[in-house]
Amino acid sequence: MKRKVFWAIIALVIGFVIYQVYIFTLSENDNIKSIYLVPDDAVFIVDTERPIDTWDEISSSQIWTHLQKNQQINKLSEGINSLDETFKAKKEIFDFIGERNLVISVHVFSPKKYGLLYIADLQKFSKLIFLKRAISNLAGEGYKVTKRVYKEHEIIELYNKETRETLHLSFIKNQVIASYTHILVEKSIDQYVYPVIGRDVNFVEIKEKTNNDGFFNIYLQHKYLKDYLNCFTSSSNLDFLNKETFFYTGLDISIIEGVIVQATGYTNVDSNSQTYLKVLQKSGVGKRSVAKIAPKNTSLYLSFAFDDFKTFNSNLEKLQQENPAEFKMYTDQLAMIEDKLDINVSENIYSWIGSEIALIHFNTELSKNKKDIAAIIKTDDIDDAKENLQLILSKIKENTPLKYKQINYRGYPINFFDLKGFFKMLAGNMFSKMEKPYFTIIDDFVVFSTSPNTIKEIINNHLIGYTLESSEKFNDFNYHFEKKSSVFAYVNTPNSYKDLLSLVDNKTRRQLQKDKPFITCFSQIGLQLISEEDLFKSNLSFVYEHPDEIEINNKKEEELKKKLLEELIPYKDSINTQSSANFFNLPPIHPSDLSAKSYKEFYGNGNIKFEVDLNDGLKDGSYKSYYENGNIKVKGHYKNDKQSGTWKAYDEQKSNVIFKKQF
Questions:
Q1: Contact 53, 99 (CB under 8 A)
Q2: Which residues, listed in sequence order, are joined to residue 149 by a DSSP beta bridge?
Q3: Which residues pair with 300 in a beta bridge?
Q4: Which of 75, 125, 469, 488 makes a 20 to 30 Å CA pair with 131?
Q5: Residues 479-532: pLDDT tens digits?
Q6: What is the DSSP string of 559-576?
């Protein structure tokens, strides 16, 4: 009898082994791709073939070491470490399974709320019933396990008694899907029957073009990006995002030298979209060169480049023709300007424009907390540009009642002309807010801005050599991008931090203020798009610096700039020294409107500091300055920007005359 039982057990074991061999070698593959289970409204899709090794490398980097000091990221890290310990506790299972392809997707499931879906490919191990049971038992005593059925698929619910969160799991063929948002698991099951993203030809195109040499791949579906960003800011700040411009971006993520995260890949464009990027995509690439005159403290440098302006303008007009009403407005405005000024726009403007038009943004003392934005045009022939711009200015003065002003600042003429529609004619809606601009010429560049103080600051930085091109950090970072591009965006995060706060909602602002060291540590961010056939070759990179190093370096930069400016501008305000020279040696002023009739500055308590009459942006007329207590300090008169007549200085308390000087 015992012998029969023994042989029966042996037969069962052999039968089980034969069954397993059949399962793993002879049975038909009945697998499904992970991407077929990703719901169609995914904003981001992360795809890695070696999640455990990838996590080991990332978690040991300088970047992750710093980020773990953040409370939320530390909580995530603890969760991952806890999960890692759970894996080790069931080591025999995971050694048996090995590393599996893991997909993580991000979805907005309701206004201001988003969730993550995890999809792991178990391949033929999904056929093992004991494995499903083992995974469901990983939870331990701290969890309550329940089950339910959705469209004939069992969903396992693991309720965490401590956090009161529920992890939802389900098995579909060779895939296990999981999420803390039950809707996403149900949407994933829906995709099993009718997959969308995995069969989208635009996604397939990008996936095939994107390398997988780095840690992992990430895919962005652009039409849902605005919904995701709206979780952190108001929709009014996102009007620049056009859902119809791009389809997908695919990026291969890697870390260079432990501190530079680089993501390279491709982006496809909707050929039917009526957008500015469509024009750039068809206009080739151009060399970036505005860093030669952009201040070193530039917070944003946005470059649009092309083979040549003639090609770009031709493509821009074709785009405008797709909207007959807009194109008629454009041609009518062009004809009106040419007729009114007696010029030919093609000959007098388009002829000297080179291969790059850029926007730069920075903050300065001169701006009085206003945003300094300048549009910069690289010229093909600077002498031709000077000649034609002077011709246009003379035509404005001769043929129209439009305002025309000019001041000279450190040898650079700053011109102003009230010529509505100039920039829209030049570059469509890209610079639509750049109306009534001031401009000057620096080297081979024509610099435009709605504020003369912005131009003065660019001139000052150029004269002292304090430019992006002189920055070793910028040049080291810029090395990771190609010299020619269609679009290039550079962000200096510490300089942009205040602007970022102004764009988000109150809840996000409070969180950003709390997390400042974990945002500004990515001190430089760059995005490059290069036209390549029907696609954009893409590069998104950012560099990590420890916040302490950033603060030390910023202080050094401020001291360096201050020293260079003092050498350039010898004036110092020594109000504590009682001498006539220090009362009557007045600092320069920087009015933001050269057409204004007067200019005033104020103390922090709201009292007026000084006031002066103006004529064409120059001091001309009465001048009065005051002590902080409101008493008169200095009184005099200007004529053609020079002190004239008798000037008087007064005592702070009794307002008695203490100095007089004749000019």
A1: yes
A2: 154
A3: 361, 491
A4: 75
A5: 999 999 999 999 999 988 888 877 777 877 888 888 888 888 889 999 999 998
A6: HHHHHHHHHH------TT
